[in-house]
Amino acid sequence: LVMLAANVVLARVLMPADFGTASLALVIAVVLTAVNQLGLIAAIVQRRELSKCHYNTAFTTSLVSTTVFGLLLLAGAGTVAGLFRNPGLAPVLRLYALLFPLGGVAAVQTALLSRNLMFRPLAKAALVARLCGGGTSIALALAGCGVMSIAWGYVVLNGGNALLLLPVSSRVQRPGLGLSMRAFRDLFGYGPGIMGMNLLNQQSANADVMLVGRILGSVS
């Protein structure tokens, strides 16, 4: 409901091309996200016994992989924008590169809280983050920021969610940096199947958006 209300306001202020460009950039980022966490997040929930070593390994691996993918998107934003013949896509993709490390932190925390059936703090964080993200988008749109108002709102949403979940999940297990190959093998033994399924799901759900964006343009 929060996001619906925000989008109704934004639809009155922004142009269709702004929504199209922001949606196309988000689809590209989401498809990459299906790969960059290596299925380790689902493995945290699924594993019968989870030690601190497993948790730290998942946290470190997720942080490193998402940062690498974020840097790759940052470097390749211009090339992708050229492929879709949409110059306005490049700055949005560069900003969306921040979603990867933010998502890497939030995903591990979400998995830990889900594993412990702590859904109330997950819901509260999601609601507050959406209020902040929607408010940011509306304020920037009214200030004339165009497509970047949607992009910044989504970054604030994800950043707020990660910050809100960190102190709550730390009461269950404080995240730390560390890498154990044994723990990685335990988690990665389950992860590739989930990673492949997520990638296929995202491609099937979003291929039409990318094709329409490439062939008919951002307004369509």
Provide the fold topology.
Elements: H1 2-13, H2 16-36, H3 40-46, H4 52-83, H5 89-96, H6 99-115, H7 119-142, H8 147-170, H9 181-188, H10 191-215
Helix pairs in contact: 1-7, 2-4, 2-5, 2-8, 2-10, 3-6, 3-10, 4-5, 4-6, 4-9, 5-8, 6-8, 7-8
Number of DSSP helices? 10
Order of helices and strands: HHHHHHHHHH
> How many strand units?
0
Mean pLDDT: 87
Class inferred from helices and paired strands: mainly alpha
Low-pLDDT ranges: none
Shape by Cα distribution: globular
Question: What is the rounded distance between the termini?
Answer: 25 Å
Please explain how this structure is put together.
The protein has helices spanning about 1-15, 15-35, 40-45, 50-85, 90-95, 100-115, 120-140, 145-170, 180-190, 190-215. It is an all-alpha fold and about 220 residues long. Helix 1 packs parallel to helix 7 and helix 5 packs parallel to helix 8. The mean pLDDT is about 85.
Give a short summary of the structure.
The chain is 81% helix and 0% strand.
